[in-house]
Specification:
Layout lengths: L4 H10 L4 E8 L2 H10 L10 H6 L11 H4 L32 E10 L8 E16 L2 E13 L5 E11 L1
Antiparallel strand pairs: 1-3, 2-5, 3-4, 4-5
Length: about 170
């Protein structure tokens, strides 16, 4: 048996506010246009330069949800490395959550600047908060992460606050 939920709570609590930066690379128009098509968001600002500029954008822009929707920025794991449910079993922000089940608990987004072709993106990831709660079936954790997406000049593109429930 691994660490108890109260022990994990204490370990995670010690890391609140510590941020790590991860370079994600350059965002390309083709990728965010594919996202727009896949999500059935066919706003002309994502495809037509003249329309985008007339709308006050610096050029063809990514859909606002593009950055926060990309779960893995690398090519992805090999099939034989996937868990039985098809997920990669990635760690969340390097948190010591081994043995716990995780469930998404919501997302809050702040949009600051448009993302256009050639934008170099870095993600700053930090644990913003953790709560230890008691439910009908026992203890659980509510964890809030902050992902701040920055361009090469350290200007904030977007902030995503994500909540996870772990038990």
């Amino acid at each position: 048996m691994g660490a108890s939920i109260p022990e994990i709570y204490e370990k995670v609590r010690q890391g609140i506010g510590k941020a790590e930066r991860r370079p994600l690379g350059v965002v390309r128009q083709r990728d965010f246009q594919r996202f727009a098509v896949a999500s059935d968001d066919l706003n002309p600002a994502y495809f037509d330069e003249s329309f985008a500029k007339a709308a006050g954008l610096p050029g063809i822009a990514a859909p606002p949800l593009f950055l926060s929707s990309v779960l893995i920025w690398e090519p992805g794991p090999l099939e034989q490395l996937l868990k039985p449910d098809g997920t990669a079993g990635q760690e969340i922000a390097q948190l010591p959550l081994e043995g716990l089940r995780l469930m998404g608990g919501g997302q809050e987004l702040e949009f600051h600047r448009p993302v256009t072709d050639g934008t170099e993106v870095t993600m700053e990831l930090a644990t913003e908060g953790i709560e230890l709660k008691e439910g009908r079936s026992g203890s659980f954790l509510v964890i809030t992460l902050r992902k701040r997406y920055l361009d090469r000049d350290d200007r904030t593109l977007m902030i995503a606050r994500e909540t996870f429930i772990a038990r």
